[in-house]
Write a structure and sequence with these properties.
- The protein is 84% helix and 0% strand.
- The chain contains 3 helices and no strands.
- The chain is elongated, with a radius of gyration of 15 Å.
- The termini are far apart.
Length: 73
């Protein structure tokens, strides 16, 4: 994921991030099946998808922590 994509994700709401996260997880599952079947040529795609998923999860967690801090004075 490029830097611009990360900036765009940080602007989105948590619900939208969860939708993107679900899509990435579905893509990862398909890629892993293709790798095991020997159909996938780009083996780094799974690694990149895992990295994208972890970055999205980090953004979601940061937003949750930010909301908790804003709620408690």
């Amino acid at each position: 994921m490029k830097r611009k994509d990360l900036v765009d994700l940080k602007i989105k709401e948590v619900e939208d991030l969860n939708k993107v996260l679900g899509d990435k997880k579905a893509q990862l599952e398909k890629v892993m099946v293709n790798i095991r079947a020997g159909k996938e040529k780009n083996l780094k795609s799974a690694k990149n998808l895992k990295r994208d998923i972890s970055q999205i999860l980090t953004i979601v967690r940061e937003k949750e922590i930010g909301e908790k801090e804003a709620a408690s004075p």
